[in-house]
Amino acid sequence: MRDFEELIDEAARADVTGWDFSWLDGRASEERPPWRYSRLLGEAVARARTAVDLDTGGGEVLAEAPLMAADPHATESWPANAARARELLGPRGVTVHETAPGAPLPFADASVDLVTARHPVKPAWSEIARVLAPGGEYLGQHVGPESAFELIEFFRGETTAAQRADRRPDLEADAAAEAGLEVTDLRSARLRMEFRDVGAVVWILRRCVWWVPDFSVERYRDRLRDMDARIRRHGSFVAHSTRHLLRARR
């Protein structure tokens, strides 16, 4: 394994825009949920007339769909990601809308028959219900509670009970139902994450900025040294993510 300084310097310079995690290939891994979200997304999009993919990132997940809806759209609030999504999805006829966090969706009432989201920031259930036509479907794979908390707590210390309860699938399903949607499928999985060098840790903390909001290499250099020593001693740092699949109908 290369030395500490080389690993963190490389990771600090690497591109972290979009939802392409290929930089981590061979350096980190995360077990995938059993329901194969990309396949479900592709099947749903192919059947839809008007479809919207929320928080699309750089469009990488939607781009895996073999066929697009007749009228496909995507939303993204981070300008760098929105630009990447336009480059990737534009040639396939997808209109990418750059939206402000928390703003209403730029679609008319009951105008969409499919809304999808992979790891949405915070599902706006009232807006999703508003834009879905009667019989329209929501399909999402969400980040669940306590995801990567072993890694987060390594840098930030013990988390609170409220932080651990955030993103519970039952509460999200209740919120969807309160907005007028019928939840038709809800499944959860706990998945193994493994980081095999400290550069992978630096990269993921730069990408998932909400995990350790004040993260920088200089601020956390001592903890990064501890992480490096731990990985060299044990071969990897293991954490766990949680995911849930949520399907609902208007």
TrEMBL record:
Molecular-function GO terms, alphabetical: methyltransferase activity
Keywords noted in UniProt: Methyltransferase, Transferase
Pfam families per UniProt: Methyltransf_11 (PF08241)
InterPro entries listed in its UniProt record: 23S_rRNA_MeTrnsfrase_RlmA (IPR052939), Methyltransf_11 (IPR013216), SAM-dependent_MTases_sf (IPR029063)
Signal peptide annotation: none
Chain ranges of the Methyltransferase type domain: 54-138
Gene Ontology BP terms: methylation
UniProt entry tagged with the keyword Ribonucleoprotein: no
Protein name per the record: Methyltransferase domain-containing protein
Organism listed in the record: Brevibacterium salitolerans
Organism ancestry: Bacteria, Bacillati, Actinomycetota, Actinomycetes, Micrococcales
